[in-house]
Write a structure and sequence with these properties.
- This protein is mostly beta strands.
- The protein folds into 2 domains: 98 residues, Alpha-Beta Plaits (2-Layer Sandwich); 48 residues, SH3 type barrels (Roll), CATH 2.30.30.
- The chain is built from 3 helices and 12 strands.
- Strands 1, 2, 5, 6 and 7 form a 5-stranded antiparallel beta sheet that branches. Strands 11-10-9-8-12 form a 5-stranded antiparallel beta sheet, with no helix packed on it. Strands 3-4 form a two-stranded antiparallel ribbon.
- A hairpin with a 4-residue loop joins strand 9 and strand 10.
- The N terminus is likely disordered.
Length: 170
């Protein structure tokens, strides 16, 4: 059952630093429905490229509850939560369409899915490996879902083949 079916709304909670997983676990334990969209990020550590999952919106988590029941005070006092985002005294609900659209772009665990429809000429960013965060242009897509992209490297264009799961549209 989704939050909308139970008559509740989605709200945005600000997290304490590095407490995304803790807050998610604590809110779920209390019976709240949460949504923490994740994205993969590749960084270089100690000379090696490491891919880790990071929140898509660092410092925030979506929480569903019925504000009329005063449950927002319980969310505010949850370990790992700083406060609910509000405009005035009451927390501000996030539009249901916005949350639904983000959920459609994620898998069951909240991990952002690669774009389904790429076409030649699209601008994309690579998300994994040594070229992480490089911007490229889709040249062509092979039947095996391998995507050929053109990248600007060292003053010239280079053609590179990558998997579609390694790309994000810009």
């Amino acid at each position: 059952m989704t939050a909308h079916e139970r008559g509740t709304s989605w709200f945005l909670a600000q997290l304490k630093p590095n407490c995304a997983r803790i807050a998610d676990k604590q809110l779920t334990r209390q019976g709240f429905q949460t949504f923490l969209p994740l994205d993969e990020e590749t960084r270089q550590r100690n000379g090696k490229f490491v891919t880790v999952e990071r929140p898509l919106f660092p410092g925030y988590i979506f929480v569903a509850f019925d504000a009329d029941l005063g449950l927002w005070r319980q969310v505010n006092s949850t370990y790992g939560i700083t406060r609910l985002v509000s405009f005035g005294k009451e927390p501000a609900a996030v539009p249901l369409d916005l949350v639904s659209q983000i959920m459609l772009r994620c898998d069951a665990d909240g991990k952002l899915l690669p774009p389904e429809e790429l076409k030649p000429g699209d601008q994309v960013a690579l998300t994994k490996g040594p070229f992480a965060n490089f911007v490229a242009e889709v040249e062509k897509i092979a039947p095996d879902r391998r995507v050929w992209v053109l990248m600007e490297i060292m003053g010239g264009q280079k053609r590179v083949a990558v998997g579609a799961e390694q790309l994000r549209t810009t």
